[in-house]
Amino acid sequence: MKVAVVKETWPAERRVALVPEAVVKLRSAGHEVLVERGAGAGAFFPDEAYTEAGAAVVAADQIPAADAVLMVVRPDAERLAQFRAGQAVFGLFSPLTDPDFVKRLAATGVTAVSLDLIPRTLSRAQPMDALTSQANIAGYKAAIIAAAAFGRFFPLLITAAGTARPAKVLVLGTGVAGLQAIGTARRLGAVVSAYDVRPETKTEVESLGGAFIELDSVKEAAGTGGYARALTDAERAAQQAELAEHIARHDVVITTAQVPGRRPPMLVTSSAIKAMTPGSVLVDMGASPLGGNVEGSAPGDTVVTDNGVTIIGADNLPSSMAAAASSMYARNISSLLTYLIKDGSFTVDLDDELVAGVVITRDGAVIHPALTKAG
User: Fold this and answer.
1) Strand 168-172 to strand 162-164: parallel, antiparallel, or no bridges (unpaired)?
2) Which of 3, 206, 224, 346 shows the smallest number of beta carbons within 10 Å?
3) pTM value?
4) pLDDT in tens, 180-210
5) What phi and psi values does residue 69 have, to the nearest 5 degrees?
6) Residue 252 and residue 314: Cα distance in Å, rounded?
7) Distance set, CA 320 to CA 16, 21, 164 (Å)
8) 154 and 72: one domain?
9) Domain holding 172: CATH number?
């Protein structure tokens, strides 16, 4: 097959879908690889590195010749216009949050494969799980950003000038990103607590040296696919009120809660922020155009409240570590591509649970059950 790697079109996106190492593996499997000029520059992979790996570095107008097009995030209108019917297009398209975009994608006639819909409960899907690989990076980076923004030390320090107490860090949401944030903050020397509506994560938190907070207001809210379910309005209000007491006692709060296809849950209200001490830091990894985990946060923005609390809307942390994120994503996307190639051609077997989980459009139609049910 002829596989093309495009340059990401959104200004803040620095990742690239394939790194030179992954190109070598695809070439050894017999595939031809085209790389759009400058595609890897944001992640510090120059065109020369792709050429040395066996790829052909080409202009954007040669992308339509490819059988499969690989990207990181959803294409803009100009990129959509380059697609042709029959192509396979791979990326993190967030289809559940924007049905109109999915319809425009379907209208191009491509077979669209969205890596953020990988069935995470399937063991054979683990090498393709881009959400997990990118969440690991995001959780690490969130803790680093929090430490940089906090005006005191994370670890306990005993010096001739006196003793500095360790920072108290609270992580809300203990999925992959949350656990990585816990581990990183602990390695930096902070005292870490964590909360999740899924009580089964308590063991994982404690294995990383964190203390698990249990609330009386919400006992259990596990959902499907390893995610938490959405809370009812009454549960959410009770959760916010009880969490506020814990939030006020911490120096740094990192929020990571997500519900696929829905607005991230509000965990930190404005009243909770007002009760925090000056100099405290909130890092909202749930910040999105739909809203975030922290009231008043905005994706990509940092604000300081009237009472001196810094709120960081951390919306695309993997892109800030583009080299590492691209290397991990390249393994995910090339594993999925290889899985879908049978006897040298791209094959869509919708009887395969994994395939049915990731293919969202085909032959001009939206075919993913979660999207067709939503209308």
Assistant:
1) unpaired
2) 224
3) 0.92
4) 999 999 999 999 999 998 899 999 999 999 9
5) -115, 125
6) 14
7) 12, 21, 30
8) no
9) 3.40.50.720
